[in-house]
Amino acid sequence: MTTTAPEAGKPRRTRRGGSMMSSSGLYLATGIAAVLFLVPFYILIRNAFSTDPEITGENWKFFPTHIQWGNITEPFRDVTVDFGQSMLNSLIVAVLHTAGTLFVCSLAGYGLARIPYRHANKVFYGVLFTLMVPTAVTFVPSFVLVSSLGWVDSYRGLIIPGLFTGFTCFLFRQYFLGFPKELEEAARVDGLGYWGAYWRVVVPNSLNFFAAIATITFINGWNSFLWPLVIGQDPSAWTVQVALSSYMTNQTVNYHLIFMATAISILPLLFVFLFLQRRLVQGIAQTGIKG
Questions:
Q1: H/E/C letters for each residue in 93-144?
Q2: What is the dihedral sign for C-alpha 68, 73, 78, 79?
Q3: Residues 238-255: pLDDT tens digits?
Q4: Fewer CB in a 10 Å sphere around the end CB: N or C, the chain?
Q5: For all residues of the chain together, what is the average pLDDT?
Q6: What is the pLDDT of residue 106?
Q7: Cα dihedral sign for 156, 158, 159, 164?
């Protein structure tokens, strides 16, 4: 059987060339995706420093003719909405909600994963069942309960009803199933019980996972709108999302004020993400479902 030599003058395709083409395509797709992702932020910042005629005008400009630096302080000078108080309310609610959710759901997940008792699987299936119940079904009963306790227009009403979530408990349970048992067994040899092993061994060695869950929970707590809208009936109890909605009425829409207030409201989320970015990536890598 004879073999023919490659034709002269025709370059041979190399694996290296194919990999370079695929890398170029990957970079191009990533660049396009990044640009599309940043477009809404560009529009947000551009409109925040513009006047209303420049925002609603027919002739669109990439940058405002004159940057309106005074728009930065306008949300805090608005007498109709106490924007500073609403930012403080959102910060308190988001921080306490995040801390409480981590504590309650991690304890529940650890108990379901490590403490053997007869009805553990039934309790776990009950937690999973809560994931199938629409939020609208429990909204009215939750409000009636909070109202009967006198928690309307209070931090307790804004925070406590949402401390436990079935999905967060499920994530913690699955993570703890994959946690090395040898570390906990060594702790029990030293005389620690379940609480001591959890607090002194499991939590310090799971900070990346806790940071990932904390970031997601903080963002959800900060962006929550419907529950704070119902519970925070007094303007002094408004969160930032409720305050932003008050800028749009049937009579007037102050566009540059809405955009500037929105830009200011996302700054805490940006700081949290940048601060926990490394732990967030590492924590997501550890969220594989096991067991």
A1: HHHHHHHHHHHHHHHHHHHHHHCCCCCHHHHHHHHHHHCCCCHHHHHHHHHH
A2: negative
A3: 999 999 988 887 677 788
A4: N
A5: 85
A6: 95
A7: positive
pLDDT of residue 289: 40
Return the number of other C-beta atoms located less than 10 Å from residue 261's C-beta: 25
Taking residues 49-77, what's their average pLDDT?
86
Tracing tokens 């990999």 back to the chain, one arrives at 19
Q: Is there a contact between 291 and 226 (Cβ–Cβ < 8 Å)? A: no
Find, among 174, 242, 160, the residue nearest to 213 by Cα: 174
